[in-house]
Amino acid sequence: MSPSIVECASDQGDHRQQREERNNQWLNSIVADDDRTATELSQFMFIPDDLTFLNAAIQLKNQVVEVMWKDKGRVEIQELNPTIYTGLMGTAFTCFRSFQATGSQQDLLLCADIVRACASLAHSSRLVTFLSGRGGIYALGAVIMNYMGDHQSCGHFLDMFIEVAQEKALPVGPEEGGFGMSCDLLCGRAGFLWAALFIKMHLGEEALPNDMLMPVVAAILAGGRAGASDNPLCPLMYRWHGTRYFGAAHGLAGILHVLLHFPLSGDDAEDVEKTLRYIMSKRFPMSGNYPSSDGNPRDNLVQWSHGGTSMVITLCKASQFREAGEVVWKSGLVKKVGLDDGVAGNAYAFLSLYKLTGEAIYAERAKAFGSFLYHKGSQLVNAENSGGTDHAFSLFLGLAGAACFFFDLLHPEKSKFPGYEL
């Protein structure tokens, strides 16, 4: 097995010593005293440069395509997982990110082929979200076909997305006697709205009318107020299977992050701000991390789906990032690879902070996590997937997410957490 996520040449003699010196200088510029993260990073004798990260990203993308797409030729189409989160559309998203970084028309053609295959399966999904449902298939399909110049197919996918928007449960709030569907990013209303925002960003504001989306925003706010009726300190609260999560996947961070992209009235904006301040008041005083759910005393998760990482990105959107980034630096060098709960996802917190502040230390910290991922990624993903799971090459739980992160390291000022940042 290669010592790094892709094959690299070993250093010899003076070159090795020079790399050690550069490594020490680099670490000294981005760490504090008694820094455990720096201790772990200091073992690496080779710090990847931009070209190395680019080559690693391309090679990872090619591996993802080989395993998730080309090797699936012997599998019945009905057996494929078409989602962006852990399935085949995540491969399409990775190829799209490669196209954005390199301009490769071959990647764009691959995207289109994968989208067409997944579109035939979209009707089987009851979910309407970007990451886990047919909303993501149609949204990414419309965008990719637009880049292809196939405006007829783009319009077809857009029409299918508009059909999804007619889902009766989307705008149904407690004032109509029911909650309709969940409000979270991964499986609920916020995930549908994110798909709509993705379309509008790439196709223009006029692609989807706001009067189609604002009733869904209103339903999310109404549901949050009903869920917070027993807590006067927190205006909005949501439950996923009975638990009041704070993180991005099923909790407040993801829902509020989406709401911050829409024009909110004075009262609505105030409730969003007060809810953010409530979450911030729950920060663990010793570590600076956030609990995974309201009332949970355990300080053991630093990742996008739970803990400090999603809070950094959401607070950046709200321009209240505070100390959250330090938590990710101190504790975010976890033993998994992916966007959801691994190093790649945590590193996006630094890219978000860099975009907000322009401070070079955050870009360097992202690169430091990238160096760790470059050297240890294969080892970590092999250990994580030793039980035979097929998620090793998926977007959110595997190497496809690492490939997207490597592409984003090349232009950190333009970086976007897949399925979360716009």
Automatic annotation (TrEMBL):
It holds the Pfam family LANC_like. InterPro entries: 6hp_glycosidase-like_sf (IPR012341), LANC-like (IPR007822), LanC-like_prot_euk (IPR020464). This is LanC-like protein GCL1. SMART domains: LANC_like. The gene is LOC110692845. CDD domains: euk_LANCL. It comes from Chenopodium quinoa (Quinoa). It comes from the Eukaryota. Residues 12-22 have a biased composition (Basic and acidic residues). Residues 1-22 are annotated as: Disordered.
